């Protein structure tokens, strides 16, 4: 058997014992899931029998072992790899990172994890910028299936809860060759937790400032061939206001609940099946002040439902996987002007997407060949959308064929060459090919070099093609443009990772992104007989986003860890040479962790520094900048009686932020209890 067999998704092939980089096959169960080993002790003699003495020496439940565990990633290539030797660099937010941070949502989990990530509060909620790319240019996936429900181009990361999240995989650079449209600047893949045989359960309740309540729980278990899981959570907060001298609010009041379930089945015929589903309801409310001084009460009610079925057949040197996924997102936007009607609105929107994929992985000597097809059916129903037929509905179909060849000519030194090609057909604009070439070279075990160059694109959204919106109170209207071309990007990455020991790691990276046919809003007609200027979406100009990244990790004094990251970003419009708005030239993250396993005590201090960034950019006016700011979070947790834990913390200790350029929730304190079995 070739030693490259372990790369196959879910294959239980073992590499030769001499290959120190090959993971245990037991962790390569699935391309999108990872086993939870949190309750395994690392300080027990090998081969010691199970019994009262051994159980007493185990660390508290939920405490990850000190010994490094193999983590399997799949987002960058759609095939499973040890994260340390994956040919496409992947940033990981592990389950332990999520627990340490005290995060309840994906936005909170990502807040301090990567210096290239920037989170801001926008019209559509908490939006993410990755290496200077806009939120609509970053694809968000859940177990490899694209999430829907963009509001004003943004997927609100605060609506994704984390009680059922095993890890988050972040891939920088163009990912369109793997996932198609929208993956211009990167991919965020949320990997959910798999149930294991036996019984597992955990629960968590938190109370925080502003009457914030978080409660979540999960129960899972089963036998060797079948497992079940159920989870759910509730979240509410009163919101906040950076300008208490008026009635307008800055942060919304939120009420949210979600429930979900999953099942896995292993058949004797080497076929695995899984079925997962969840539903969520979220209500956010706030008060806005219009340009004329009017106060407007605003409410967004969103409803989300997901259902995914997957089946995998495993052979001696191949694997075939098929997936069917359906997602529905309803957004009901209601706006009520106080003492007036000019700004009153009621806009229901239904966004549906059906996804079907089939993927074949085959071993051929030192080649792992991946091929397959993706089908996406999407339709949107909204009063704001007027298609060519005049109906308030727009739909599109996408079909794609892809192929990738992972060739590893040698393992000492390790060299992997990864060419990939994909051709997408979109019913709205036709064929679009993308490609990528990636290279990994590890001349010695502690040093890894990576390079990648690829092409990405973002197809125009329904809103950009068919929006029909009139705001008579302000004097404008916005119309869609069905003739828009896709945004395009050519991205190049160079990276170096040096890990001289388990207590030290250094990473350096360079990236250069060239963008063309960017979509923006511009005036296309001056005021008509009704006094309304007409705006529309147009393809304009080009831009570049380039920069440098550096990060380091050190473990010291046995119980301490320190980690830091820095990103320098240079983003400019090629025509005007002006900076692209919303991109800070300098960003840094810092973290200091303490973990005394025998006490069950953890403490973490995390911080982020964001430099000044262009806030308002106009060809006729000087550029205005948002002021720099720094935020610090502190959390201390204590395990007791093996199954229980208590924690306290403070977020935004420095009370950074303001109402306009940096809308950050003010300083808040929290405390809570946890249970894990």
UniProtKB/TrEMBL annotation:
Belongs to the TonB-dependent receptor family. Residues 84-187 form the TonB-dependent receptor plug domain. One of its GO terms (molecular function) is siderophore uptake transmembrane transporter activity. This is TonB-dependent receptor. Residues 271-653 form the TonB-dependent receptor-like beta-barrel domain. Residues 17-65 are annotated as: Disordered. Keywords: Cell outer membrane, Membrane, Receptor, Signal, TonB box, Transmembrane, Transmembrane beta strand, Transport. It is a multi-pass membrane protein. GO terms for biological process: siderophore transmembrane transport. It comes from the Bacteria. CDD domains: ligand_gated_channel. Residues 27-44 have a biased composition (Acidic residues). Signal peptide: none annotated. It is found in: Cell outer membrane. Residues 17-26 have a biased composition (Low complexity). GO terms for cellular component: cell outer membrane.
């Amino acid at each position: 058997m070739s030693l490259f067999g372990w790369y196959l998704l879910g294959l239980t092939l073992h590499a030769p014992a001499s290959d120190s980089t090959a993971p245990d096959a037991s962790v390569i169960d699935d391309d999108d899931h990872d086993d939870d080993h949190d309750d395994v002790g690392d300080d027990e003699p090998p081969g010691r029998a199970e019994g009262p003495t051994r159980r007493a020496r185990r660390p508290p439940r939920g405490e990850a072992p000190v010994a490094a565990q193999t983590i399997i990633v799949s987002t960058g290539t759609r095939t499973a790899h040890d994260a340390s030797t994956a040919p496409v660099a992947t940033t990981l937010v592990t389950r332990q990172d999520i627990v340490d941070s005290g995060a309840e949502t994906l936005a909170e989990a990502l807040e301090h994890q990567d210096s290239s990530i920037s989170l801001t509060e926008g019209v559509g909620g908490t939006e993410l910028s990755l290496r200077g790319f806009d939120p609509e240019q970053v694809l968000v996936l859940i177990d490899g299936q694209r999430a829907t429900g963009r509001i004003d181009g943004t997927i609100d990361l605060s609506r994704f809860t984390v009680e059922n999240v095993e890890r988050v995989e972040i891939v920088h650079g163009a990912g369109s060759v793997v996932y198609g449209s929208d993956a211009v600047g990167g991919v965020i893949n949320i990997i959910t937790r798999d149930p294991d045989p036996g019984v597992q359960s955990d629960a968590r309740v938190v109370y925080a400032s502003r009457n914030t309540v978080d409660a979540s729980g999960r129960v899972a278990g089963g036998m060797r061939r079948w497992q079940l899981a159920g989870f759910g959570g509730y979240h509410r907060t009163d919101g906040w206001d950076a300008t208490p001298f008026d009635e307008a609010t800055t942060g919304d009041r939120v009420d949210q609940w979600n429930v979900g379930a999953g099942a896995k089945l292993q058949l004797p015929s080497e076929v695995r099946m899984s079925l997962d589903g969840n539903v969520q309801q979220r209500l956010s409310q706030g008060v806005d002040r219009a340009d004329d001084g009017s106060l407007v009460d605003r409410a967004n009610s969103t409803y989300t439902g997901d259902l995914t079925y997957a089946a995998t057949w495993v052979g001696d040197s191949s694997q075939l996987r098929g997936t069917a996924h359906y997602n529905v997102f309803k957004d009901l936007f209601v706006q009520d002007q106080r003492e007036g009607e000019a700004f009153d609105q009621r806009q229901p929107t239904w966004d549906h997407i059906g996804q079907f994929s089939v993927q074949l992985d085959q071993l051929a000597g030192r080649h792992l060949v991946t091929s397959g097809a993706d089908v996406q059916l999407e339709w949107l129903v909204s009063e704001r959308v007027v298609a060519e037929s005049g109906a308030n509905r727009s739909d599109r179909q996408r079909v794609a064929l892809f192929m990738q060849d992972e060739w590893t000519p040698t393992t000492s030194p390790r060299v992997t060459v990864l060419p990939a090609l994909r051709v997408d057909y979109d019913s709205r604009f036709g064929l679009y090919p993308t490609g990528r070439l990636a290279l990994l070279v590890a001349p010695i075990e502690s040093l890894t070099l990576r390079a990648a160059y690829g092409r990405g694109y973002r197809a125009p959204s329904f809103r950009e093609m068919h929006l029909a919106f009139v705001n008579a109170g302000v004097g404008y209207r916005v119309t869609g443009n069905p003739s828009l071309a896709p945004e395009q990007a050519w991205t190049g990455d160079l990276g170096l990772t040096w890990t001289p020991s388990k207590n030290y790691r250094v990473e350096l990276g360079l990236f250069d992104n060239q963008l063309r046919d960017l979509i923006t809003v511009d005036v296309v007609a001056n005021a008509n007989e009704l006094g309304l200027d007409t705006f529309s979406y147009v393809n304009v100009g080009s831009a570049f986003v380039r920069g440098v990244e550096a990060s380091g990790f050190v473990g010291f004094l046995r119980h301490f860890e320190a980690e830091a990251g820095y990103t320098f970003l240079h983003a400019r419009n090629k025509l005007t040479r002006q900076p692209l708005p919303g991109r800070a030239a300098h960003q840094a993250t810092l973290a200091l962790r303490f973990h005394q396993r025998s006490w069950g005590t953890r403490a973490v201090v995390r911080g982020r520094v964001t430099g000044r960034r262009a806030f308002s950019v106009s060809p006729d006016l000087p550029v205005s900048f948002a002021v720099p700011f720094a935020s610090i979070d502190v959390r201390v947790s204590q395990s007791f009686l093996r199954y229980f834990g208590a924690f306290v913390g403070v977020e935004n200790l420095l009370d950074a932020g303001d109402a306009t350029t940096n809308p950050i929730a003010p300083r808040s304190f929290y405390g809570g209890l946890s249970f894990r079995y």
